[in-house]
């Protein structure tokens, strides 16, 4: 962070939720009496139920149930899918959880739970349009506020964007957002531009997708001097909420109030109009959280607990959510149209077929790949049964995460528009190419969640996907959400933080291991020598060789000391040729010595590429033998 | 996981179809409950906002925004005609004039003393909603729309493009496995809904547009042909707005996929009958599947589409039910549920999932992830 910028560490969304929580059950007021907790997540594809309970005085994960989400036609009632998922848990445990009125609370004997919480991204999640004056300043800050609240930003309008007025109006009418946020102008600054944006939106008369009876919420988070005019222009047509300016001055961004307003309006307006949510809201005393908000809460918790720089990814069916906690600054982005089912063809479009094919270790022509992905798009709840199809989906996952991270880095930057001894007039001349502040060498941990990663048959597959997508440098720990429960724990943490943290540590976070990789300045055969001092004091010496990737098994829970002596041209985090001495931990995979360099480059020739991939997969025992064009059993 | 399954696509010889026709904005309903309508009867109307013009008036007149009203020739709410002057400033004793005129006819909506901008809203545009299917109006939703009901044959596709269309069913391909090619389409296809087999070529798509066919229904869509036809690659399955002169519906998926025998036979039984079809597909945020409706007003049935759906939701999956496998390696195979083991099973990808045992038509039994089947509803 530059010295002359301030970037407030925004209060987490937990504060807004804590204010909103109305505990209806006397028992839930006393968290010590909570023995059984049920949490669900209504995803865009699948509703996932998780049962937690006290065992030997500790809160533990017990079991899961999953079922297709039923917010869509013909069901149009999200509680059906939730009930189906919960019924699975009933079958597995013999514990009755459902009644005619929803979830049985409190727990008594072999029935019910003491607390039920839920998250949701069903129905496409919260879809917002954002508008500001300057795309790279106030509009961007407003976008960050919206993303920070777990929204999907459908479009960003700005006064200075190149589209003519009639195109902007047409776009506003086409979008049909759930909510709109307007920002613009520092306090005391120019009033005309943000006024024009506001008038444009009023003139366009945007309609929400949620039907005729839905009043569209609009949040105004711009120049305070324009508030009266905004109220006059928008107050009668929309549900208007006015909050503090996201950029009251150019040097400071304050997105917390705007983000909290998104949450409040999401609950009061958006959720209450989504099919079946009015019923679901009655089932739980805790406000329903958007899934990205809940996921982000747990990634942030992870970083704070361990005092680490963390990158997290939630790879879902419709969206890819990326989170970073870097030098305590938390950024969340939701890549709305990158996912593994609904939007899998968007990944194909944006990444390009060659970028997906490069990760597939067998011959597959482009048409075959396209049809495979298109069929997944139109049948999103299906799962890969054959090894071949699994490899294809894992290839797409790498690209979805890579693209999501590119999007994330475009937001994880220093504030634009901040001037040092220059006038405001120079703002528009400021270079557009400010790099992200994220330095991969300083990332301590990368963690993943989401159906595909959590359900990868071998943990090493998730590890490889994370490594190939993010391409960490230096010494980076890898972790994985065991069965996809981070959103569940995120919302649970708003009411029972201790339980959430306990389950997180004991059952959720799977330590996969540590990736050790270098940026190579000049090609060399031996990249480094590593001395690994095991917990029993014995030292083991290994080499990292160019082009190789291999595993040193170190079990979970074991910490080792490593000393890396790089060759002159290799940078393992401290600079080219500089020694690295640190501690790290093992995991279900262990230490992954990655000598492939950064970026990872694959041969252009498909045959050579397949051989190389197979060599890597074999070295890591990532897939069953015969991972060339594995047939089904 | 008895209830955790994907609903199958509907293929019904006769059912009661109820369609809800809704206006995009509150408006006026033109029919009443009990009325008989044909597919092109206008059932409702409303006005949608017209064009909007914003004029940077204070900049043009070089005055401060707060002074703009002094130079206005019109006030908020006034009618404005195309090219009419709405504000003017004279200077140098009238020798120099700056003015703004409206490029559209409409209403002066806003004179902003904050931005200096004038907003003119164009005259609203009347839109009419037709019935889409012939039948009887069974419900009026005031200001919003109507529900129309008719006995009909019904087919849901898996994916489509293009919006509502109508035409006579004409089976072109001789078998469900045949590819519909251009030389099978002639000028006789004008206004018709052409039924193909396993796929359709790009040449056939273009020929169908050329002859004025209303729609094409096939088993599989060649993705490359679709990309050429549309001019772009589909990113998400949200369609229906394409203006390509043709509604295209696939019943099985992407690639060369023979139409299922049951569906093909049903289409043959509908030969010569009028159909309403809609290629609109939306897999997310409100699932829509493309459809073909063949009204049979002279038939009667008490079985309704909505009743069947709610029944199937409640029943869940049971042994003996007919299912279709919708993912490799047995894509397209039809069988009956033999059993529903509770325990997880390891499949060839090494994933551990809940499966069902399916007895295929050749008598063999295969184990299939429960997520990879759809129920064939009788």
Give a verbal description of the structure.
The complex is a heterodimer of chains A (633) and B (378). Chain A contains 19 helices and 28 strands. With 633 residues, chain A is of the alpha/beta class. The radius of gyration of chain A is 25 Å and the shape is globular. Chain B is mainly β and 378 residues long. Chain B is built from five helices and 28 strands. The longest helix of chain B has 11 residues, at 305-315. In chain B, strand 7 and strand 8 (96-101) form a beta hairpin. Chains A and B meet through strand 4, helix 3, helix 5, helix 6 and helix 11 of A and strand 5 and helix 5 of B.
Q: Keywords for this structure?
A:
heterodimer, A: 633 residues, alpha/beta, 8-stranded mixed beta sheet, 5-stranded mixed beta sheet, 19 helices, 33% helix, 24% strand, disordered N terminus, B: 378 residues, mainly beta, 11-stranded mixed beta sheet, 5 helices, elongated
Strand order of the largest sheet of chain A: 17-16-15-18-19-20-28-24
Task: Count the E strands of chain B.
Answer: 28
Low-confidence stretches of chain B: 1-5, 306-314
- Regarding quaternary structure, what we see is heterodimer
Q: How many alpha or pi helices of chain A?
A: 19
Strand content of chain A: 15-25%
Structural class by secondary-structure content of chain A = alpha/beta
Quick one: overall form of chain A? globular
**Largest sheet descriptor of chain B:** 11 strands, mixed
Radius of gyration of chain B: 28 Å
What's the helix and strand layout?
The complex is a heterodimer of chains A (633) and B (378).
Chain A: E1 6-7, H1 14-20, H2 26-29, E2 36-42, E3 46-55, E4 58-68, H3 78-93, E5 98-99, E6 102-103, E7 115-120, E8 127-132, H4 138-148, E9 152-158, H5 165-175, E10 179-182, H6 192-204, E11 217-220, H7 227-234, E12 239-242, E13 252-253, H8 256-273, H9 277-283, E14 289-290, H10 291-306, E15 310-315, E16 320-326, E17 329-335, H11 344-351, H12 353-357, H13 366-378, H14 387-411, E18 445-449, H15 451-454, H16 459-470, E19 474-481, H17 486-493, H18 497-508, E20 509-517, E21 519-520, E22 526-533, E23 539-545, E24 549-552, E25 559-566, E26 570-571, E27 580-585, E28 590-594, H19 606-619
Parallel strand pairs in A: 1-13, 2-7, 7-14, 8-9, 8-10, 10-11, 11-12, 15-18, 18-19, 20-28
Antiparallel strand pairs in A: 2-3, 3-4, 5-6, 15-16, 16-17, 19-20, 21-26, 22-23, 22-25, 24-28, 25-27
Chain B: E1 11-22, E2 28-29, E3 36-37, E4 42-48, E5 52-55, H1 57-61, E6 79-80, E7 85-91, E8 96-101, E9 106-111, E10 118-122, E11 125-130, E12 135-141, E13 145-156, E14 159-161, E15 164-171, E16 179-180, E17 192-195, E18 199-200, H2 202-211, E19 215-221, H3 223-230, E20 247-254, H4 261-269, E21 274-278, E22 291-295, H5 305-315, E23 322-325, E24 334-339, E25 344-346, E26 352-360, E27 365-369, E28 373-375
Parallel strand pairs in B: 15-17, 16-18, 17-19, 19-20
Antiparallel strand pairs in B: 1-13, 2-4, 3-12, 4-11, 5-10, 6-9, 7-8, 9-10, 12-13, 13-22, 14-20, 15-21, 21-22, 23-24, 23-28, 24-26, 25-26, 26-27
């Amino acid at each position: 962070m530059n010295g002359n910028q301030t970037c407030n560490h925004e209060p987490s969304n937990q504060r807004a939720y804590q204010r909103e929580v109305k505990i209806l059950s006397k028992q839930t007021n006393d968290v010590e009496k909570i023995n059984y907790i049920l949490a669900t997540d209504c995803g865009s594809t699948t509703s996932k139920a998780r049962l937690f309970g006290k065992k030997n005085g500790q809160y533990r994960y017990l079991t899961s149930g999953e079922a297709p989400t039923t917010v869509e036609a013909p069901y149009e009632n999200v509680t059906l899918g939730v009930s189906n998922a919960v019924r699975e848990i009933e079958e597995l445990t013999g514990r009755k959880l459902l009644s005619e009125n929803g979830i049985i609370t409190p727990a008594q004997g072999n029935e019910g739970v003491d607390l039920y919480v839920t998250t949701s991204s069903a129905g496409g999640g919260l879809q917002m349009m954002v508008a500001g004056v300057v795309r790279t300043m106030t509009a961007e800050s407003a976008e960050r506020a919206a993303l920070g609240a777990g929204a999907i930003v459908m479009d960003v309008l700005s006064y200075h964007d190149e589209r003519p007025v009639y195109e902007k109006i047409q776009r506003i009418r086409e979008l049909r957002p759930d909510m709109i946020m307007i920002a613009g102008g520092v306090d005391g600054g120019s009033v005309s531009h943000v006024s024009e944006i506001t008038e444009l939106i009023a003139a366009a008369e945007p309609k929400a997708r949620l039907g005729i009876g839905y009043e569209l919420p609009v949040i105004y988070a711009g120049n305070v001097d324009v508030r009266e005019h905004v109220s006059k222009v928008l107050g009668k047509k929309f549900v208007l909420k006015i909050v503090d300016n996201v950029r009251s001055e150019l040097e400071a961004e304050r997105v917390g109030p705007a983000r909290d307003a998104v949450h409040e309006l999401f609950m009061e307006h958006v959720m209450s109009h989504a099919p079946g949510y009015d019923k679901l809201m009655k089932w739980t005393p805790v406000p329903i959280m958007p899934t990205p908000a809940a996921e982000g809460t747990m990634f942030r918790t992870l970083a704070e607990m361990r005092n680490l720089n963390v990158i997290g990814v939630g790879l879902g069916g419709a969206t890819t959510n990326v989170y970073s906690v870097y030098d305590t600054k938390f950024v969340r982005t939701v890549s709305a149209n990158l996912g593994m089912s609904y939007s899998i063809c968007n990944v194909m479009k944006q990444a390009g077929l060659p970028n997906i094919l490069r990760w597939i270790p067998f011959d597959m022509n482009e048409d075959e790949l396209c049809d495979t992905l298109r069929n997944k798009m139109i049948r999103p709840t299906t799962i890969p049964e054959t090894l071949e199809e699994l490899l294809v989906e894992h290839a797409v996952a790498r690209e979805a995460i890579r693209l999501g991270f590119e999007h994330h880095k475009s937001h994880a930057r220093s504030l634009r528009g901040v001037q040092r001894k220059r006038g405001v007039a120079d703002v528009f001349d400021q270079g557009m190419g400010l790099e992200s502040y994220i330095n991969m060498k300083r990332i301590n941990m990368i963690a993943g969640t989401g159906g595909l990663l959590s359900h990868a048959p071998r943990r090493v597959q998730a590890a490889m996907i994370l490594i190939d997508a993010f391409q960490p440098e230096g010494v980076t720990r890898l972790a994985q959400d065991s069965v996809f429960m981070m959103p569940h724990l995120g919302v649970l943490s708003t009411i029972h933080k201790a339980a959430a943290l306990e389950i997180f540590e004991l059952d959720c976070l799977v330590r996969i291991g540590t990736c050790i990789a270098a940026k190579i300045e000049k090609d060399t055969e031996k990249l480094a020598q590593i001395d690994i001092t095991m917990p029993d004091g014995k030292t083991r010496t290994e080499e990292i060789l160019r082009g190789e990737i291999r595993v040193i098994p170190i079990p979970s829970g074991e910490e080792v000391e490593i000393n890396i002596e790089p060759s002159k041209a290799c940078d393992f985090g401290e600079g080219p040729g500089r020694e690295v001495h640190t501690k790290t931990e093992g995991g279900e995979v262990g230490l992954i010595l990655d000598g492939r360099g950064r970026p990872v480059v694959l041969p252009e020739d498909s045959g050579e590429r397949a051989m190389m991939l197979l060599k890597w997969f074999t070295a890591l025992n990532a897939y069953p033998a015969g991972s060339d064009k594995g047939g089904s059993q | 996981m008895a209830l955790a399954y994907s609903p199958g696509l509907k293929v019904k010889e006769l059912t009661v179809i109820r369609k809800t026709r809704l206006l995009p904005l509150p408006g006026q309903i033109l029919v009443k409950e009990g009325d008989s309508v044909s597919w092109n009867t206008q059932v409702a109307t409303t006005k949608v906002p017209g064009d909007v013009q914003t004029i940077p008036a204070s900049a043009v007149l070089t005055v401060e925004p707060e002074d703009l009203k002094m130079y206005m020739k019109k006030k908020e709410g006034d009618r404005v005609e195309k090219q009419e002057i709405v504000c003017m400033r004279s200077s140098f004793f009238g020798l120099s004039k700056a003015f703004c005129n409206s490029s559209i006819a409409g209403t002066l909506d806003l004179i902003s003393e904050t931005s200096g901008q004038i907003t003119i809203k164009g005259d609203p545009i009347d839109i009419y909603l037709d019935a889409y299917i012939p039948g009887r109006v069974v419900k009026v939703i005031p200001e919003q729309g109507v529900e129309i009901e008719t006995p009909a044959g019904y087919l849901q596709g898996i994916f489509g493009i293009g919006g509502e269309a109508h035409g006579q069913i004409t089976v072109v391909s001789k078998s469900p496995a045949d590819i519909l090619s251009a030389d099978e389409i002639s000028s006789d296809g004008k206004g018709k809904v052409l039924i193909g087999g396993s796929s359709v070529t790009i040449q056939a798509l273009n020929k169908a547009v050329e002859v004025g066919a209303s729609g094409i229904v096939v088993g599989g869509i060649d993705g490359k042909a679709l990309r050429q036809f549309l001019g772009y690659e589909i990113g998400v399955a949200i369609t229906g707005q394409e203006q390509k002169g043709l509604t295209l519906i696939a019943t099985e998926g992407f690639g060369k996929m023979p139409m299922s025998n049951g569906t093909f036979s049903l289409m043959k039984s509908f030969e010569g009958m009028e159909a309403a079809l809609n290629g609109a597909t939306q897999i997310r945020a409100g699932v829509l599947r493309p459809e073909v409706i063949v009204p049979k007003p002279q038939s009667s049935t008490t079985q309704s589409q909505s009743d069947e759906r709610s029944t199937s939701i409640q029943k869940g999956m049971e042994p003996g039910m007919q299912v279709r496998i919708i993912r490799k390696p047995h894509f397209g195979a039809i069988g009956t549920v033999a059993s529903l083991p509770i325990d997880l099973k390891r499949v060839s990808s090494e994933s551990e999932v809940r499966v069902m045992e399916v007895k295929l038509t050749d008598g063999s039994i295969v184990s299939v992830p429960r997520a990879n089947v759809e129920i064939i509803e009788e």
